[in-house]
């Protein structure tokens, strides 16, 4: 098991223990991911980036964790390998945006 | 280096090579994360979860990768440890939602 | 008929002519509203507010229209009066944020 | 003054009285619009559309109002005519999606 698989296992254990997985279809997980991304954005509302980081560091940290947790649940539900999908996307981006 | 540190390094190498890091303040990264989360959601628009997964599997995979890439950039910029912030959040959630 | 009732009628005529209303349950309309809001935000990505307004004026205008169209469809589906819900919210906000 | 202009005037009076307009640049308003759209979406999280409408009617109403208030502030800041931008967008959509 690599580190991502271990993290996904911790998250799956968490939701299995609460019998939550029945609600976790990919569409509702994608909705939740969007909501968490907006909660992260809320930490930056009406503030410069620096002010936000200074005053909301703790909450920013938690909201990034929430976003990652939902993304990892989606990887689990859809049987995606985190490392693989990110490396594939970076390769695709490298073609789209070549280094000058 | 553990597995996410390696991924963060790959992502940082990618954006350093393109001199993009000057634009990557946390506020604009949080904006981008929200935009990518909405692009993922778009794959589920006007469809049931199952239909979406069936017809947009490839794109769903890429959008989840994009979300993870921005989340990892935020971890890099803010010097956050992926494992640590996720485990902390799971612990906090475990208190909030105890197993019955 | 007041001005927003007229606009809602135009929007409803548009979607009735295309037989789209069968898909327009409030949950999927709320998803679409979030997606459009993110498309508006995309016009401001990696730019200052002023630069965005200067370079993307036309698109910003269209995305605001899209957001309003989905909000008006929701008002139509849920039988809400635009003026009434906005005035109620302003009153509630006035209590929450009193003028000093 | 048409009905939209009257509503925008009420909203502008509200924020002028609180001296908020100095913060209301279009980029931060677009961020806020995205956050409010996500709060609306939250009323539908983990629920069918019907269940959400049944259990969260009051809050859905308020969140739609919040979305419209931010959209109208953007119209005010950017000097856009609500009726005009919506009619233009409907015309453009009519070309893109002709009636069969």
How would you concisely characterize the structure shown here?
4 copies of one chain form a homotetramer. Chain A is mainly alpha-helical and 100 residues long.
| Secondary-structure element pattern of chain A, one letter each | HHHH
> What are the segments of chain A in which pLDDT stays under 50 over at least 5 consecutive residues?
none
Structural class of chain A: mainly alpha
Shape, principal axes of CA atoms of chain A: globular
The CATH homologous superfamily of chain A corresponds to: MazG-like
Write a structural description:
Chains A, B, C, D: It comes from Alkalicoccus daliensis. Chains A, B, C, D: InterPro entries: dCTP_Pyrophosphatase, DCTPP. Chains A, B, C, D: This is NTP pyrophosphatase, house-cleaning of non-canonical NTPs. Chains A, B, C, D: One of its GO terms (molecular function) is nucleoside triphosphate diphosphatase activity. 4 copies of one chain form a homotetramer. The first copy, chain A, is built from 4 helices and no strands. The first copy, chain A, has 100 residues and is mainly α. Chains in contact: A-B, A-D, B-C, C-D.
């Amino acid at each position: 098991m690599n580190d991502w698989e271990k993290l996904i296992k911790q998250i799956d254990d968490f939701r299995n223990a609460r019998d939550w997985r029945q609600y976790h279809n990919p569409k509702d997980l994608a909705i939740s991911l969007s909501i968490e991304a907006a909660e992260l954005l809320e930490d930056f509302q009406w503030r410069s980036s620096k002010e936000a980081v200074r005053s909301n560091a703790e909450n920013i940290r938690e909201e990034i964790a929430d976003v990652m947790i939902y993304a990892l649940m989606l990887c689990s539900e859809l049987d995606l390998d985190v490392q693989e999908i990110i490396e594939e996307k970076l390769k695709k981006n490298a073609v789209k945006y070549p280094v000058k």
